[in-house]
Amino acid sequence: MHCRHLAARIAQEQNPITEASGSPFAVTRILSVDDFEPYRLFVVSLLHERSDLKVICGVSNGLEAVQKAQELKPDLILMDISLPLMNGWEVTRLLKNNESTRHIPIIVLTAHALVTDRERAFEAGCDDYDTKPVEFGRLSEKIDNLLTVRKS
Question: Can you list the domains of the chain with their CATH numbers?
Answer without folding.
Answer: 3-10+26-151 (3.40.50.2300)
